[in-house]
C-alpha cells in the first residue's frame, strides 16, 4: 500500500478552528484487498447552523489513528445532491453515502470528499491518500467534479476556474492539468 506524494500547490487551505464540539458521528468500516481494516468517521458540529453535512473526518486502521481533517465549509453526502450520489454509487469501492474510495493505480487508494457549494463558487473537492499507517490531503481545490473515467489509468475530470481539468496518478504523484 502506497501513499501519494504531496504537492502543496494542489492544496488550498481548509478553514478550521479549535474548540468546537463535534457530534453525530457516522462510522464506516471497510477492508480493501490486501489491506488492513479502515474506519472512516465523519462528524457534525454541535449548535452549528452553516450548510454542509459533516465537518470533520477521522481515519483509523486497526484501531490506530492515521489522520484527522476538518473543514468549516463542510462536506456533503450523496443525499444532498443527486450528482454526488450517482458518482458514489457508480465508482466507490466501498458502499456508503459520504465519500468515494478509489484505487488510483499501483495500490494508491484515495478517499474523495465533496465540499458544499456556496453561491456561484464551485465546491471544494478534497482527496485524501491513505495507507495502513498514514494519510495526507493530496488535493483540495474549488473543483466541480464532472466524471470519473478509466482508460489506461483512472481520471477524475471536472471544472476548475471555468476550464475542464483532469486529475490522475503518475509515478506516485497526483497530476492536475487542463485538458
From TrEMBL:
Domain of life of the source: Bacteria
Natural source organism: Reichenbachiella faecimaris
Protein name, UniProt field: Uncharacterized protein
